[in-house]
Amino acid sequence: MTDPKLLFKTVTLGNITLNNRIGVAPMARVSATFEGLATTQMVSYYKSFARGGYGLIITEAIYTDDKYSQGYLNNPGLINEEQTRAWKKVVDSVHQAGAKIFAQIMHVGALSQGNRFIQETIGPSAVQPKGKQMEFYEGKGLYRIPREATQQELSEVINGFVNTAKRAKTAGFDGVEIHGANGYLLDQFLTDYTNRRTDEYGGSTENRVRLLVEVSKAVREAVGQDFTIGIRISQGKVNDYNYKWAGKEKDAEIIFSQLGSAGLDFIHVTEYEAWQPAFPKDEETIITNSGLDNSDLSLAALAKKYGKVCVIANGHLEDPVKAKEIIEKGEADIITLGKGALANHDWVNKVKNGEPLAKFDEEKVLRPDVKIKDFEV
Questions:
Q1: Cα(217)–Cα(229) distance, rounded to whole angstroms?
Q2: CB 329 within 8 Å of CB 348
């Protein structure tokens, strides 16, 4: 490597400066109270990463309304004063330890398997999700068939993201990440087989990305220009790991260029292995006007190419060499760790000091009393 210390250089993200280019990826947890309040256990959990040297911590997904957004029981929310006060304790502890923290805000849509407010689910269309509910989160059997969301309900979805982002700002978070990945509601709109709508939100890729763009613009308008906001994007889903965008690079161009023009400060891209080509090599390649073969570009590189904003890359980058390479190549500005962070809450300090890294051990890390699961795909 030409610059072995590249990971530890400061970087500006929106209106904030991070101490380094290493973050903790958002990972689903079920350790909040039934009422969705962040707990003292969560304060300790997030603070431990800050003490371990991570420049940025992105929280687990936080639900955005008292209707259809909650994904699991004991999933935290940020929709009222009590929840805001509880999250402020987390934020303050992370800041005291020297790191920045973003709230990841999410509507789960058709993949809900535990909602204390409403039993039915909504989605872009009445399409049963693939796969089975996750037993780790006390789900059982097939997912329910969602009801197609009305346009009025989509307005309520947008308002939920807006109000939760405003509460995140009140709680002292340094920014928010809109969850547009992993098969949840916004990604359900983006995905061709779950979105069969015939209105302006369905059909073409331009239409299917519309809700993500509208949410991004609405959040930006609500929080102002001085608050960092971004969005998480993936191809794979928690219930369909191998899914790829049918339009390949053309879809990437449409999706990332639209999001890059929506007022966002960053796009957080997650793949199983962040450095791998976004689309299978044996498929038809796309040749640019210059004659260069773009078939080997990673999804992060495509986000950088078309989004023209800061890019965060996620996906098995716990090897410091892999992490450095993706930044050195200019494919990403920041990397986040999931399993690597769970195994090494002090990954940053260990790498700085040349100490050996622990390997991810599910039996040790995912203890029943802690109830943490990594949804990195």
A1: 10
A2: no
**Domains, the chain, ordered by start:** 6-365 (3.20.20.70)
Residue 66 contacts residue 79 (beta carbons within 8 Å): yes
- Give residue 124's Cα distance to chain centre: 20
Identity of the amino acid at 306: Y
The pLDDT tens digits for 38-93 are: 999 999 999 999 999 999 999 999 999 999 999 999 999 999 999 999 999 999 99
Q: Determine the pLDDT at residue 250.
A: 98
Identify whether the C-beta of residue 340 lies closer than 8 Å to the C-beta of residue 7. no
- Helix-strand-coil percent breakdown of the chain, rounded to 5? 35, 15, 50
Residues of the chain with pLDDT under 70: 1-4, 282-295, 363-377
Q: Which residues are catalytic?
A: 184
Burial class (CB in 10 A: 0-12, 13-18, 19+), 297: buried
